[in-house]
Design brief:
Layout lengths: L1 E5 L20 H10 L3 H6 L3 H5 L1 H21 L6 E4 L3 H8 L5 H21 L3 E6 L3 H10 L4 E8 L2 E6 L1 H13 L4 E5 L11 H11 L11 E2 L6 E2 L5 H8 L4 E2 H10 L4 E5 L4 H9 L4 E5 L4 H15 L14 E4 L4 E5 L8 E2 L4 E5 L2 E4 L4 E6 L6 E2 L4 E7 L1
Parallel strand pairs: 1-2, 1-10, 2-7, 4-9, 10-11
Antiparallel strand pairs: 3-5, 3-6, 4-5, 7-8, 12-19, 13-15, 13-18, 14-17, 15-16, 17-19
Helix pairs in contact: 1-4, 1-6, 4-5, 4-6, 5-6, 6-9, 7-8, 9-10
């Protein structure tokens, strides 16, 4: 089973939108800009590292990039059985699952970034990574400072992030090294996220959450707060609010997903931080990430290889994995070629239909499993047309 995961703040980097600018999924960037009256394209194409590191910019930019990657993957026909996101990525997961409308999610993320930036400006804070230390020892290091420092992220075995007041962070890092930590290092962030120091942001975020409609997710979303799946719309306002001041239980989330039968983890968005954490936590699991359009073919190849060893389980109309998809070469009205039906054998270059005046030719040799577009339907560029079982 496949789960899509979504990164949080810190995965962003300058010009991360450049590879996507000519992709059909880039249209989401324009929608996001309209939703919050900000030039999101400029953030993704032109912003330097300093501008993009600001919380209000980093969160919006990372969220939109994850949604662009998700849209591109969806156009290929690959879908997930569940979703999970790290911190900010939880908003991506909720949008992907249908629990949040895209426009509402963009506005919530924008408000969240502003609120967390304001809270950080009001109370100086920072974060540090402790490597090679057990969770209990990291917690003890925080408590021994008798100051304002807490665990913020349980990321992977032997990898914990702490957050708090800078001088207390330094003291906790010193205690952690004495307890056997291999490394204890400050992170380049301007706030103590996921700690009680974010309480002002939580109050502000709740006001924004109250203005948004949550729907029941089409697939369960695993929450940062308790590392368990939630498919009740009523749960999410409180889960999102509490998340700001509570640790992200990412390692526990990955373990729960594995226990629930998930074997393939696909990270959607900039970077590959979550893929690395998954590798440390679940060494035998299948993993892939889509950060640029160039990663799409690799994802399909990875899923096809798994199909050959483990045939997929199909539920309803969802294609949780595919061997190969033939996609539309452009936008227009689709017409099906005579005899193009399930069970037919096709060769490379065989005509499957037309989109406007453009021919839809098979790029693969195999057997048609299903035709995914309707005759007379207006399709978009790269929309799936036919699903093939390749030879």
């Amino acid at each position: 089973m496949i789960v899509f995961t979504y990164p949080g703040q810190g995965s962003q980097h300058p010009q991360m939108g450049v590879p996507w600018a000519d992709h059909p999924s880039w249209e989401l960037v324009e929608e996001a800009s309209e939703a919050v009256d900000r030039d999101v394209a400029a953030l993704l194409l032109e912003a330097d590292a300093e501008e993009l590191t600001m919380t209000r910019n980093a969160q919006l930019a990372t969220f939109v990039m994850s949604m662009v990657a998700l849209d591109a993957v969806s156009r290929l026909g690959a879908e997930a059985v569940a979703h999970a996101g790290h911190s900010l990525g939880e908003y991506s997961a909720l949008t992907a699952s249908g629990a949040l409308d895209f426009g509402d999610a963009v506005r919530l993320v924008d408000e969240r970034g502003d609120a967390m930036q304001a809270a950080a400006d009001e109370q100086t804070g920072t974060m540090a990574a402790l490597l090679g230390l057990e969770d209990d020892q990291a917690d003890i290091a925080c408590r021994r400072t008798a100051g304002d420092v807490w665990i913020a992220n349980y990321n992977a075995p032997g990898q914990v992030v702490i957050a708090g007041v800078p001088e207390d962070i330094d003291e906790a890092c010193k205690i952690a090294k004495e307890a056997g930590a291999k490394r204890a290092m400050r992170l380049p962030v301007g706030g103590a996220f996921h700690t009680p120091l974010m309480a002002p942001a939580r109050r502000r975020l709740y006001k924004a959450i109250d203005q948004v409609e949550f729907r029941a997710p089409e697939q369960p979303v695993y929450a940062n707060l308790d590392a368990t799946p939630h498919d009740d719309a009523a749960d999410w306002p409180d889960l999102l609010g509490a998340q700001l001041c509570s640790p992200v239980r990412w390692r526990q989330t990955l373990r729960t997903l594995a226990d629930d039968g998930f074997t393939t983890f696909v990270e959607l968005g900039p970077g590959n931080v979550l893929t690395g954490l998954m590798k440390r936590t679940l060494k035998g699991a299948n993993r892939a990430n889509v950060a640029t359009p160039a990663d799409l073919d690799g994802l399909l190849e990875s899923l096809a290889l798994q199909l050959r060893s483990e045939p997929p389980t199909l539920e309803g109309e969802h294609l949780f994995a595919t061997e190969r998809l033939v996609v539309s070469p452009g936008a227009g009205i689709f017409s099906l070629a005579p005899g193009c039906e399930p069970g037919r054998a096709v060769s490379v270059g065989d005509l499957l239909g037309t989109v406007g005046d453009q021919e839809v030719l098979s790029s693969f040799a195999g057997e048609i499993v299903g035709v995914l577009a309707l005759k007379g339907e207006r399709v978009t560029s790269r929309q799936p047309i036919a699903w093939l079982r390749v030879h």
